[in-house]
Amino acid sequence: QAPSKPLKQEQPGEVCRADECESSSPLMVVWRDVEVPLPQNEQHRWDQLVGYNILDTEPEEAYDRITALCKRLFKVPIAMLTFVDKDRVWLKSVQGLPGLKQLERRQSLCAWTLLSRFPEALVVPDLREDARFKDFSVVTGWPHARFYAAVPLVNSDSVRLGTLCILDVEPREFSAESCTLLAQLACIVMREIERKRAMNDALCKTAVRHESGDSIAHDRQGLMLCDMATPKWAIYLVNDAWHRTTGISQEMAAGGHFWDLFEPPAPAQVCHHLDVTHF
Known about the structure:
six-stranded antiparallel sheet; 7 helices; two-stranded antiparallel ribbon; alpha+beta
């Protein structure tokens, strides 16, 4: 299988030329590019996403209520809350697609919503008629999507982390009023995400002090503070003693996961080790 071509970077000031795009509106732009570029701020965007420690977490009722409401409100069979990782789109909440957890970023409609050149809502009335998406697997195969509407999840730093989106198996129109309503629901989602992060940060600050008032950061024992409620135990803090003992600093551990520290080395590394080891 031929290696995949790396995603190109979104260019500063890149705009749609008259001969490259069809009519646009404040709610929708039809673009003829067939491969989505990376946002200009992709590394910063991804760093911020990782900082929320939300990827690969368990489903939560607060978010499931929002996607269920979207499904009922807009009378669609599919509603999703997604976060765009480096090479995948991970689904925090999904209605109508049982068992689906993630999608390849290259084959994801949601990745387009991250681009700054697109408006606040991306609406595609008929995916089969759009050159960007007509060959995507979600269009040509299950669930045979025809309609897509999405708004970005934008944090307090104006960084786009993912989307709140809906899909239908029939082409349809989507009014400006409906776009506004979807955007308001996305704001509710983002407020909940920020609230949970602030709560975790507060708990972390409280936990870093012993009853004696001494800070964990200056304890003579190597200590790491993790969130065991997350699947791989998100790391919130390591102290100086841990750094001296293991070589892993707070900067290196930030945004990481405890169990990733115990992943086996890649086969190539093992082979190299065996080649240079003499018995």
